[in-house]
């Protein structure tokens, strides 16, 4: 896990070994169509779509807490045990529960790497092509590992660009940033088993880059943290214990 190409910034290092248990992860980012049903059911305000349309586009402008609430709601609808217990901004996890949850940062990266392979982008390629990844392909941002091309300036429907990775996962790079479970923290060199991050912190990890970012931010090693109450270019992908 980490910057296996030796081209990132300090928070992507050191590279370290991680072992994970079995889990399932969504082939697509959660869509407006799915999230709007949750909002209708729970009578909560729907997030804005920036005028781009809803339907099969990935939901965005949601907080980390919104994503947690959706996971619990969907678990209840399908008869699974919810993973999260939330009291205001305090969220506890029952990792033995069989309901839906956010991926841990390590789970996200393992999936984006097609099962831990040395790949640069979430579609299994080492070159970012704007024809198949939704990122800012403007010529000014071209790198040695990207192709200059279209900058769409908005999201696209999930999976619409094709090019899933070897695990059948779409848009692991680009389209929208994806919330993960972990509090943001520096890496350590020590090997870890099923890491879940700090017990508390100020920022939750998000991964994958978005339509508004250049190729550097869409690398699978790239990681950032935002306060969990922040909205903007943030969506999420479901995960579940296998």
Which stretches are poorly predicted, pLDDT < 50 over at least 5 residues? none
Q: What is the domain total for the residues?
A: 1
Mean pLDDT, rounded to whole units? 97
SS content category:
alpha+beta
Strand order of the largest sheet: 9-8-6-10
**H/E series:** EEHHEEEHEEEEEE
Shape: globular
Q: Termini distance?
A: 21 Å
Describe the largest sheet. Answer: 4 strands, mixed
- Give the beta-strand count: 11
Q: Output the CATH topology.
A: paralog of FGE (formylglycine-generating enzyme)
Description of the structure:
- The protein has 3 helices and 11 strands.
- It has 242 residues and is an alpha+beta fold.
- The protein has a single domain, classed as paralog of FGE (formylglycine-generating enzyme), CATH 3.90.1580.
- The strands form 4 sheets. The chain has a 4-stranded mixed β-sheet. A 3-stranded antiparallel β-sheet has the order 2-11-5.
- Strand 3 (84-87) and strand 4 form a beta hairpin.
- The mean pLDDT is 97.
Structural descriptors:
single chain; 242 residues; alpha+beta; paralog of FGE (formylglycine-generating enzyme); four-stranded mixed beta sheet; three-stranded antiparallel beta sheet; 3 helices; 11 strands
Task: Summarize the topology.
Blueprint: E1 18-19, E2 23-25, H1 32-42, H2 64-77, E3 84-87, E4 90-93, E5 100-101, H3 105-112, E6 177-183, E7 192-193, E8 204-207, E9 223-226, E10 234-235, E11 239-241
Parallel strand pairs: 1-7, 6-10
Antiparallel strand pairs: 2-11, 3-4, 5-11, 6-8, 8-9
């Amino acid at each position: 896990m980490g910057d296996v190409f030796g081209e990132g910034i300090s928070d992507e290092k050191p590279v370290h070994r991680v072992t994970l248990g079995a889990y399932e992860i969504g082939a697509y980012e959660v869509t407006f169509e799915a999230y709007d049903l949750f909002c209708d059911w729970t009578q909560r305000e729907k997030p804005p779509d920036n005028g781009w349309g809803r339907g099969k586009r990935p939901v965005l402008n949601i907080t980390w807490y919104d994503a947690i609430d959706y996971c619990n709601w969907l678990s209840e609808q399908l008869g699974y045990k919810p993973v999260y217990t939330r009291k205001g901004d305090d969220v506890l996890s029952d990792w033995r529960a069989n309901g839906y949850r956010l991926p841990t940062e390590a789970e996200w990266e393992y999936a984006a790497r097609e099962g831990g392979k040395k790949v640069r982008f979430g579609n299994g390629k080492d070159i970012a092509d704007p024809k198949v990844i939704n990122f800012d392909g403007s010529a000014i941002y071209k790198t040695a590992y990207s192709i200059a091309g279209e900058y769409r300036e908005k999201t696209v429907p999930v999976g619409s660009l094709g090019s899933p990775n070897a695990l059948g996962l779409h848009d692991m790079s680009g389209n929208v940033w994806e919330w993960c479970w972990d509090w943001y923290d520096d890496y350590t060199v020590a090997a870890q088993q099923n890491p879940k991050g700090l017990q508390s912190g100020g920022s939750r990890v998000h991964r994958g880059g978005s339509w508004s970012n250049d190729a550097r931010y869409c690398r699978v090693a790239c990681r950032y943290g935002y306060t969990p109450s922040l909205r903007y270019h943030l969506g999420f992908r479901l995960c579940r214990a296998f």
